[in-house]
């Protein structure tokens, strides 16, 4: 089974310290696919993962990864608003 997550970059690319956008609370309630497009446009250093109810995440913090959960209708939930992590 392959790892669903991109290799973790704990370095500087895409991290908040470099002035790239790192959180997107305004996308809560928006369609997940649209949110993914917006995030990738705002910060081209990150890989976006859309998670469904019941999906779990790794415990590491990666500067090149954004993940968020969508509800049964495919909209971004407020449980964990999109942000680098």
TrEMBL record:
Q: Name one GO molecular function term.
A: serine-type endopeptidase inhibitor activity
* UniProt keyword annotations, A-Z: Protease inhibitor, Serine protease inhibitor
**What Pfam families would the database entry show?**
potato_inhibit (PF00280)
Query: What InterPro entries would the database entry show?
Result: Prot_inh_pot1 (IPR000864), Prot_inh_pot1_sf (IPR036354)
Q: Name one GO biological process term.
A: response to wounding
Into which family does the record put it? Answer: Belongs to the protease inhibitor I13 (potato type I serine protease inhibitor) family.
Q: What is this protein called?
A: Proteinase inhibitor I13, potato inhibitor I
Lineage of origin: Eukaryota, Viridiplantae, Streptophyta, Embryophyta, Tracheophyta
């Amino acid at each position: 089974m392959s790892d669903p997550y991109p290799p973790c970059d704990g370095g500087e690319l895409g991290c908040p310290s470099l002035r790239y956008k790192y959180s997107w609370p305004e996308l809560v309630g928006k369609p997940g696919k649209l949110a993914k497009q917006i995030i990738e446009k705002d910060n081209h250093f990150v890989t976006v993962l859309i998670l469904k109810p019941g999906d779990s995440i790794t415990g590491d913090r990666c500067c090149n990864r954004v993940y968020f959960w969508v509800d049964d209708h495919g909209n971004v939930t407020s449980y964990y608003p999109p942000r680098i992590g």
